[in-house]
């Protein structure tokens, strides 16, 4: 199941857009006591389909280090 959330911009708080969106999603999860997997994908990242296979294997809690790949 997917949910689309909209967050309002609060001009009194100077917070980056991505942080505001993540906080809105986490608040929604807490409010509705949702059970499942949350993955925050950036719009400028490329994801392998293997990532989603690994996400499906999570039973309780999972985390991965984030790395940047660049030519040496």
TrEMBL record:
This is Glycosyltransferases. InterPro entries: Glyco_trans_43, Nucleotide-diphossugar_trans. It is an enzyme of class 2 (transferase). Keywords: Cell wall biogenesis/degradation, Glycoprotein, Glycosyltransferase, Golgi apparatus, Manganese, Membrane, Metal-binding, Signal-anchor, Transferase, Transmembrane, Transmembrane helix. Mn(2+) binds at residue 44. Its cofactor is Mn(2+). One of its GO terms (molecular function) is metal ion binding. The keyword Magnesium does not apply. It is a single-pass type II membrane protein. The lineage of its organism: Eukaryota, Viridiplantae, Streptophyta, Embryophyta, Tracheophyta. Involved in the synthesis of glucuronoxylan hemicellulose in secondary cell walls. Its main location: Golgi. It is found in: Golgi apparatus membrane. Its EC number is 2.4.-.-. GO terms for cellular component: Golgi membrane. GO terms for biological process: cell wall organization; glucuronoxylan biosynthetic process; plant-type secondary cell wall biogenesis. Belongs to the glycosyltransferase 43 family.
